Fold this sequence. Notes:
Blueprint (H helix, E strand, L loop, with lengths): L3 E16 L8 E22 L1 E3 L3 H15 L3 E8 L9 H16 L6 H8 L7 H8 L2 E4 L10 E5 L6 E7 L6 H8 L7 H20 L3 H23 L5 H12 L3 E5 L6 E5 L5 H11 L2 E6 L7 E3 L1
Parallel strand pairs: 3-4
Antiparallel strand pairs: 1-2, 1-11, 2-4, 2-5, 5-6, 7-9, 7-10, 8-9
Helix pairs in contact: 1-2, 6-7
Amino acid sequence: MVEEIIISSPARLHFGIINPFRKDLRLYLGAGLAVNRPRVEIVVRKNRELSFRGPRSEEVWMKLRPLIEKYGLRKGEVEIRKTIPKHVGLGSTTQLLLSVAKGLLTVNNIFFDIEEVSSILGIGRVSGVGKYAFQYGGFIVDSGVKGKDSTKLYLRLRFPENWRFIVVIPEGRGLSEEEENRVFAADEDIPESLIHEASYHLFVEIIPSLIEEDIEGFSTGLEKLQLIVGKMFSRYQGGVFSKNSQIIVDVLKKLGVKGVGQSSWGPAVYGVIPPGENAEEVKTRVSRIVNGDVLIVNPDNQGAIMVD
């Protein structure tokens, strides 16, 4: 019987949403990738009264109440050891809530079902990339929604282990959940041609290039997708990219980095580092120019894991 478990889950890069606004068409449908840094790490101990401690513990307690009440959870001491920076575009809240939920259910001998838990917690109503990055790792495309259904898994591919990303997290923050909800509730009449163009870049350029391990095609398609998605959201973020993200995008492109984009609402920005290129040298060059955290990250093809 499990007495204590440690769960570690990956951050995710969000590459874009195909149709954020046109309710007469299939909504949303997004793509992204689980990456190995930064991470959530939590510990749950079984034979203790239900309690939460560590960073964001009060927030986690409040957001998990529907799950706690649904399953009548009364046991499980939760210690939050590591979190992903909040509101920077790396999927921090989804990873944290799912990690704690899985830990609590496991120590209480209740099966963890990603779809049921996500539904209870309201995760994946717009983007399912985070929940499937948690469950499976790798490159994720979700189904979007038609009617009132939540997103489902459309495609999961193993991402080449030797393709790395540079991730820059400058000052500033992206939209909160409340702000994001207001954006997606807006009556925004974007041209259908943008949706078709975004779909082309994802399904005709990015995915085939990934399957063929063509990093040049992947990077080119990803940049094109980001520009189209950015146009759809430009009214809400002040341009194709948010103000703080745009500065980093310009720096990375001037340094010759390919596949540059903004993850979710930003301000986190990523770029592709091909095999054979000295990633640490790229990191050093970027760090000399920008203010913020600069990381070299690898794809995470496992998703959340239980640590011994």
